[in-house]
Design goal:
alpha/beta; Aspartate Aminotransferase, domain 1; 2 domains; 15 helices; 12% strand; globular; AON_synthase_class-II; transferase; Aminotransferase class I/classII large domain-containing protein
Length: 461
């Protein structure tokens, strides 16, 4: 082995060992299949359980049997533009109440976000983003984005957003950023997720648009809405939370990203934007220009999933999973209170959805994503190397055969470790009830150990 190779190996090993010591080393989980019966899946993003739907399975096979093209795509869409892909774009434009010329397919939501944020913001512009925005937006901002400034604000906090925007408008630097924003010669892009993947919370879209209208009256403020975890679950026919709030076609929403790989159990994504932005991205978005397009098979599968949205199948499944979320959250909170398990040991969700406000009963206030936050050890009675999130996950797996993975830094901020629960329409009431039982049992064990001064060192994952 050469000295260069040896030095490289040493550097890589040292970095990975550092992560292992801090309990943040990532590994691929054991191989599994969607129909595995050994454990109950509360981890995957198959919210509507379409990946195991016999109806969708049979519909896809029938469609494929009548399809002229199935394998491959022929190359980048700038070299070949398969009619299969073109027809899906036409269909999506109609489905999402959008213009055909502003509807653009991508191989993934990640590619779409990188493409938009690396190309569309121009020199002198500003990108303001929610602190919990997806990594793909950050990577887009690092991949050639020419915006003059990038600033974050507190998650879903309009007061923080207003403070950030007012600070930008008041800037009086030599480049005149504040003046340009005030007179409309520079643009501001506001990046949010309509449903946050780690928290299950919702961006206050109407309030944010109103902030843009109030503070940027020259109409140079644009909202970019990532609907990855909302598509298929919310709004008419599952068109997302933008549609749910009656904001389709709003001039301040410059782009919506809808992905197919989560609730729709397919692959790919679409950006809904203006025809001009779509033409610009077709010329400059490297993940689009230099990537072989999705295969015909992937496009046909996505189209079959949209059949489920249009015929009402997905709507019934969405109602089921959101209703289950409401029941699970309520039951778990009530049982934790009854057992006097304080939030210093376990907290259900980022927001308190158990308020007595009547509108809280609406399913639209609930999400299939429910984080079980496991705060750091509250005292020296717990071993500092002990990870509550890993232990809760291990407890659920070993005793209840429930698969719910721990999420830790750097995926989430330090101090916000959690087990993220993802509910599916295919879960039974008995399975969800067992999840409640397992979580409460673990909470009692942890609270008792701390109160009795015993050191918890167990970690089986």
């Amino acid at each position: 082995m050469s000295s260069t190779s040896s030095a490289l190996n040493q550097a890589l090993e040292a970095t990975l060992e550092s992560r292992a010591k801090r309990r943040i080393l990532r590994r691929l989980p054991p191989p599994s299949t969607p129909t595995a019966t050994t454990v109950v899946d509360f981890t995957s993003n198959d919210y509507l359980s379409l990946s195991i739907s016999p109806h969708l399975h049979n519909h896809l096979l029938t469609t494929l049997s009548h399809s002229e093209h199935i394998l491959g795509s022929g190359g980048s869409r700038l070299l070949v533009n398969p009619v299969t892909h073109h027809d899906l774009e036409l269909r999506l434009a109609t489905f999402f109440r959008h213009t055909q010329e502003g509807t653009l397919l991508f191989n993934s939501g990640y590619d779409a976000n990188v493409s938009f944020f690396s190309t569309v913001p121009q020199p002198g512009d500003v990108v303001v983003y929610d602190e919990y925005i997806h990594a793909s937006v950050h990577d887009g901002l690092r991949s050639g984005c020419r915006a003059q400034k990038r600033v974050s604000f507190r998650n879903n906090d309009t007061t923080s957003l207003i403070s950030v925007l007012e600070g930008l408008l008041d800037e009086n630097d030599k480049n005149g950023l504040g003046l340009r924003l005030r007179n409309g010669t520079s643009s501001l892009f506001l990046a949010v997720e309509t449903v946050y993947s780690m928290d299950g919370t919702f961006a206050p879209l109407k309030a944010m648009i109103q902030v843009l209208e109030d503070l940027l009256p020259c109409r140079n403020g644009y909202l970019i809405a990532d609907e990855a975890h909302a598509t298929g679950l919310y709004g008419p026919q599952g068109r997302g939370r933008v549609a749910l709030e009656g904001l389709e076609g709003h001039p301040r929403i410059l782009a919506r990203l809808c992905t197919f790989g989560k609730a729709l159990a397919a692959t790919g994504a679409v950006i809904l934007t203006t025809p001009l932005v779509a033409r610009y991205m077709t010329n400059y978005a490297r993940p689009l220009v230099y990537t072989t397009a999705l295969s015909h098979l992937a496009i046909i599968a996505a189209s079959c999933s949209f059949d489920m949205l249009e015929d009402g199948t997905a709507e019934a499944l969405a109602e089921r999973v959101l209703g289950m979320s409401r029941w699970f959250s309520k039951q778990l909170r009530e049982q934790l209170r009854e057992e006097n398990i304080g939030t210093e040991f376990l907290r259900v969700g980022i927001e308190e959805f158990d308020k007595e406000e009547p509108e809280r009963s609406s399913l639209h206030f609930h999400s299939p994503i429910i984080p079980l936050l496991t705060p750091p050890p509250p005292s020296l009675t717990e071993n500092k190397s002990y990870s509550p999130a890993h232990d809760l996950s291990s407890h659920l797996l070993t005793k209840y055969r429930i698969h719910a993975r721990p999420i830790t830094w750097p995926t989430v901020p330090k101090g916000q470790d959690r087990v993220r629960i993802c509910l599916h329409a295919g879960h039974t009431e008995e399975q969800v009830a067992a999840l409640v039982e397992g979580v409460v049992e673990w909470g009692k064990m942890r609270a008792r150990a701390v109160q009795e001064g015993r050191v918890m060192v167990r970690n089986r994952l």
